[in-house]
Write a structure and sequence with these properties.
The protein is elongated and about 55 Å long. Helix 1 packs antiparallel against helix 3 and helix 3 packs across helix 4. It has a two-stranded antiparallel sheet. Strands 3-4 form a two-stranded antiparallel sheet. About 45% of the residues lie in helices and about 10% in strands. By secondary structure, it is mostly helical.
Length: about 180
């Protein structure tokens, strides 16, 4: 759980950076210049130019956003595991629904973080999830490419983190904590 804050801070920063670029506030010529890092016995030289147009920069920032979103989802699921909440055999309680939804979002990113895709091969996960005022309908996502609207928007992942902090890992003993594997 040490990295969940960092993962979500990086995600928020990626959104802010993307928005900053959309507002035209990033000077591409100044940003995309020759750069050399030196230190710790290494010299690392980045290519002189990696982006040709402002549209290339927007695409790169969109890709960065997807990757940081996936990293946050994977980290959220890992925190759930570290807190001792295993995948439930039956999805019944709000906690079970949080676990199932988190696990499925993680799965969408785990095999290809840059081009996430749903992998709803176990039909028990193809369902509606409702917990803590969050409503996620994964009944028909199948194996399609992940889109933020599939979970109700990008803000939902932040709300899921808040739910977990309030209901799962800030209490030493939670009633109904799952201890069984599937």
């Amino acid at each position: 759980m040490n990295y969940v804050g960092t993962a979500f801070s990086q995600l928020a920063f990626a959104w802010k950076l993307y928005n900053y670029a959309l507002e035209g506030k990033i000077n591409l010529a100044e940003l995309d210049r020759p750069l050399t890092f030196q230190g710790g016995g290494m010299v690392f030289v980045l290519p002189d130019k990696v982006l040709d147009t402002p549209d290339d920069m927007i695409l790169a920032l969109q890709n960065n956003l997807v990757i940081t979103f996936g990293a946050a989802a994977i980290t959220l699921n890992r925190c759930r595991e570290e807190a001792g909440y295993l995948l439930p055999t039956q999805i019944e309680s709000e906690t079970d629904q949080f676990i199932g939804a988190t696990y499925q979002i993680r799965n969408a990113f785990a095999h290809d973080i840059a081009e996430p895709r749903w992998n709803m091969t176990n039909q028990r996960y193809a369902r509606i999830y409702a917990f803590g005022g969050i409503h996620i309908d994964l009944t028909n996502v199948g194996t399609k490419i992940f889109e933020y609207q599939d979970i109700g928007g990008p803000d939902v992942l932040f709300r899921m983190k808040e739910y977990a902090e309030a209901h799962l890992w800030h209490s030493s003993v939670m009633p109904g904590k799952q201890t069984k594997n599937i």
